[in-house]
Amino acid sequence: xxxxxxxxxxxxxxxxxxxxxxxxxxxxxxxxxxxxxxxxxxxxxxxxxxxxxxxxxxxxxxxxxxxxxxxxxxxxxxxxxxxxxxxxxxxxxxxxxxxxxxxxxxxxxxxxxxxxxxxxxxxxxxxxxxxxxxxxxxxxxxxxxxxxxxxxxxxxxxxxxxxxxxxxxxxxxxxxxxxxxxxxxxxxxxxxxxxxxxxxxxxxxxxxxxxxxxxxxxxxxxxxxxxxxxxxxxxxxxxxxxxxxxxxxxxxxxxxxxxxxxxxxxxxxxxxxxxxxxxxxxxxxxxxxxxxxxxxxxxxxxxxxxxxxxxxxxxxxxxxxxxxxxxxxxxxxxxxxxxxxxxxxxxxxxxxxxxxxxxxxxxxxxxxxxxxxxxxxxxxxxxxxxxxxxxxxxxxxxxxxxxxxx
Length: 406
Ligand SMILES: Cc1cc2nc3c(=O)[nH]c(=O)nc-3n(C[C@H](O)[C@H](O)[C@H](O)COP(=O)(O)OP(=O)(O)OC[C@H]3O[C@@H](n4cnc5c(N)ncnc54)[C@H](O)[C@@H]3O)c2cc1C
Hints:
The chain is α+β, with helices and mostly antiparallel strands.
């Protein structure tokens, strides 16, 4: 369906679209509404297909590959009208739409753009990110998963870990080593890996929240078509950091946030302040001056988070602020819920919701690069401070001392 090009008509059209969003996307909070719930994925695909078919998905993507092209004014109107109305199941596409597709658009040949952009934007294909390994997290350049050419295919072997959403992903953006004789930041290539094949085994990791949001992924001679390379051969470090910049923007600026009333257990969103206010009212502490001060602080933090996004501050600043806000909001919820914050009945759905956020907020400081790494980035690249000493930048990866891996 074509959205109207006239800005006034377009605004009314977007409003109507969100008014009419099918009720199947709305469900009350429940014990099984975490990121590992397959119903989330069904709802997510339905939401995204509706958005795409209404002609509202793909601003900034080439028309030939299923996008809407550059339409800054309509895009701005869409952002204004969709704020706070995007269902939180959109988070299922955080890696594909928020990170992988922009890199595919910017660094792949038109044929690969044609292959991946339309199904990605429409939610027909869900992506995950295969970067971290048991021996390569902050020091990502130490990754040891290898890719070897075999005729018309690449053969991939290695182990990845902390892979969010791998359990329902169709495709993965993968970093693998293609030339171990080069120093560790070179000789890496970015690939697109089809997940549904015999060489890929996904094992869920259950977190202390009770939700299995991320996974271990074992890759044993998995196959990738020879041209499913993003950017150039051995240029994967540059591609990898380009994608991470999108990740920090996404996790830093709150671009995906469901309705502020919606109580869902999804990974990276700080608790919305209106929910904290209602919690304070429910436990009868809304007039307590200390609680009021905490709520005012959280409210300011939420506004600052939005302004940082609107100002397009450095992504590391947005990310640091967002994780700080996540901890602050969770601490307030925990203090209001006391003693429920430390123990609750298994069937107490409401307490379970607050608990999820209390326990989950720490992980926000790790995913997408830890707080310390964000500070290093700001210190070195923004403030121009002395760089951390690096002793292995010119040593062949194969000559480095490493823990044994697969
Ligand atoms: C919720 C969540 C989702 C995630 N999703 C994904 C995903 O989808 N795909 C994926 O590939 N990965 C994912 N990750 C992994 C994430 O990217 C890593 O956890 C992160 O990069 C840190 O790596 P690490 O866990 O190996 O910790 P380490 O790198 O071992 O760090 C341990 C500690 O040392 C500190 N440290 C390390 N190096 C330095 C340094 N140079 N200076 C100062 N301090 C330092 C760190 O800040 C940290 O406190 C996810 C993680 C979380 C928590």
